[in-house]
């Protein structure tokens, strides 16, 4: 039996855990300090006290960023679960008991990747609210919001979108060229592309960039969902413009200069709300904005 464990273990403060998670996700004390409206010195002091409390080093300080130690990685999982549990507990008592139905729209690729966890959390905090999810193209979802058929929707947009005036940007991400690791598709001429259908921001960025560069290409595969595009990439039949977060082994990011590819800029995820949305839709909109804002 261990005899070195204190009789009363210290408690971890929620605001310190939030700071810790922020630094772990951003890789920067300075950026995290700006996000929580504290000085960098104050944030450093919080982490120093946390490390003293646990008796472990949590971050390795490098020249341009900080990264987690193995103990820091272990704590990160606990910290996220503790903060989530705290949020659920507070919401149970402070958030009004909302009821009703929210009609929520999302483009195909966002719906597949990011929404399951978000909707699960919303169901825990608002069990009496039913969320009806519709999946479609951004242009169609905008029309449905305007027609009163949807209360709110997410949108995929690019830098040159005609719809830039609609909705609020809640997340931005770099678009990159992706292909199979060790693949030959990027070396073919004309360049074989796997694209979504007309209206997709990724498609428009890819085609506009190649046209400006004067690079010859052919649309080898077209799919409404990124899973179809990914299948073509995995088979080394084409390359595609993808958000950086979706490029995972055995896919790889293709170097622009090495392969004569144009830069693609960023794409944005926007939130567009209908004018007649109710309180339940407002609650979901707030949770969506927070969840995607954390990914910036």
Outline the structure in words.
Pfam families: HTH_1 (PF00126), LysR_substrate (PF03466). This protein is an alpha/beta fold. The protein contains eleven helices and eleven strands. It has helices at 14-26, 29-35, 40-54, 70-94, 108-113, 115-125, 138-146, 201-213, 226-234, 256-259, 279-293; strands at 59-61, 66-68, 100-106, 129-135, 152-158, 168-180, 191-195, 217-222, 240-243, 251-253, 266-273. The strands form three sheets. Strands 3, 4, 5, 6, 9, 10 and 11 form a seven-stranded mixed sheet that branches. It is globular.
| Rounded Rg | 23 Å
Coarse shape: globular
**N→C terminal distance:** 46 Å
Total number of β-strand segments? 11
The level of helicity is 40-55%
Low-confidence stretches: 159-163
Percent range for β-strand residues: 15-25%
Query: What is the overall number of helices?
Result: 11
Give average pLDDT, whole number. Answer: 87
**Major sheet:** 7 strands, mixed
Order of helices and strands: HHHEEHEHHEHEEEHEHEEHEH
Structural class by helix and strand composition? alpha/beta
């Amino acid at each position: 039996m261990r005899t070195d464990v204190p009789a009363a273990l210290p408690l971890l403060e929620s605001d310190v855990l939030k700071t810790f998670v922020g630094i772990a996700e951003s890789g920067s004390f300075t950026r995290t300090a700006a996000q929580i409206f504290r000085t960098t010195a104050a944030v450093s002091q919080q982490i120093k006290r946390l490390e003293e409390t646990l008796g472990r080093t949590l971050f390795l300080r490098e020249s341009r960023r900080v990264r987690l130690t193995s103990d820091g990685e272990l704590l990160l999982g606990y910290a996220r679960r503790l903060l989530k549990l705290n949020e659920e507990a507070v919401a149970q008592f402070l958030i009004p008991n909302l009821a009703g139905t929210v009609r929520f729209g999302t483009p195909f690729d966002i719906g597949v990747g990011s929404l399951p966890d978000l909707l699960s959390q919303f169901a825990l905090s608002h069990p009496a609210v039913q969320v009806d999810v519709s999946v479609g193209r951004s242009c169609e979802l905008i029309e449905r919001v305007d027609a009163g058929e949807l209360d709110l929707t997410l949108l995929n947009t690019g830098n040159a979108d005609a719809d830039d005036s609609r909705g609020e940007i809640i997340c931005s991400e770099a678009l990159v060229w992706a292909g199979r690791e060790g693949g030959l598709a990027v070396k073919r001429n004309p360049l074989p592309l796997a694209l979504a259908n007309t209206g997709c921001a990724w498609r428009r960025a890819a085609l506009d960039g190649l046209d400006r560069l004067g690079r010859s290409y052919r649309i080898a595969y077209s799919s409404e969902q990124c899973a179809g595009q990914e299948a073509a990439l995995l088979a080394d039949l084409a390359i595609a413009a993808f958000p950086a977060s979706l490029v995972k082994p055995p896919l790889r990011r293709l170097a622009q200069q090495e392969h004569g590819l144009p830069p693609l800029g960023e794409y944005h995820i926007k939130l567009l709300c209908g004018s007649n949305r109710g309180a339940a839709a407002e609650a979901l909109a707030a949770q969506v904005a927070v969840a995607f804002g954390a990914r910036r």
